[in-house]
Amino acid sequence: FGSSHLGFSHSGRKQPQHLSSQARQDPAAMGIGRDSRHKHYKTGGRSKTSIKKRKYEMGRPATLCKLGSKRVRPVRCRGGNMKYRALRLDSGNYAWGSENVTKKVRILDV
Predict the structure, then answer these.
(1) Burial of 95 from C-beta contacts in 10 A (0-12 / 13-18 / 19+)
(2) What is the DSSP string of 18-43?
(3) Is it the case that residue 84 has pLDDT exceeding 90?
(4) pLDDT cut 70: percent of the chain above it
(5) Half-sphere exposure of residue 107, counting CA atoms within 13 Å on the CB side?
(6) Residues 20 and 7: beta-carbon distance below 8 Å
(7) Cβ within 8 Å of residue 40, ≥6 positions away
(8) Which backbone phi and psi does 102 adopt, to 5 degrees?
(9) 75 - beta bridge partners?
(10) 72: which strand partners?
């Protein structure tokens, strides 16, 4: 029998079976923060975290745009402004700098 069968960790301590698989959180389920309070000082010291996370420090998961018919979702931002998140696109602006030309082009392949 292996040690994993009995519920032992690599350190030899017994772990409850129900925690061993569920205790590790999925990275997508964890919050994305854009705060700088967790950083060290220039001298190497740690700053005390005396306040909770704030909504203005919130980040959102990246949307990996795919090829296909246009699908864009509005996202509410700070101040009630809107950003438009592209989920699928089949065309876009192409700027050809050396020729000083910008055109709307269809995307064939990435």
Answers:
(1) exposed
(2) HHHHHSSPPTTTS--B--STTSBPTT
(3) yes
(4) 74
(5) 15
(6) yes
(7) 46, 47
(8) -130, 125
(9) 83
(10) 86
Per-residue tokens: 31: 């919050």
DSSP 42-110: TTSPBPP--S---GGGB-------EESS-EEEEEE-GGG-EEEEEEEESEEEEEETTTTEEEEEE----
Q: What is the pTM of this model?
A: 0.58
Q: Are strands 66-67 and 82-89 parallel, antiparallel or unpaired?
A: parallel
* Identity at 39, one-letter amino acid code: K
**60 neighbors 66 (Cβ within 8 angstroms):** no
How many residues are present in the chain? 110
The overall longest dimension of the chain from CA atoms, in Å, is 70
Beta carbons of 5 and 15 less than 8 angstroms apart: no
Using only C-alpha atoms, the chain has a radius of gyration, in whole angstroms, of 24
pLDDT (tens digit, 9 = 90+) per residue, 19-56? Answer: 555 556 666 567 888 888 888 999 999 888 888 889 99
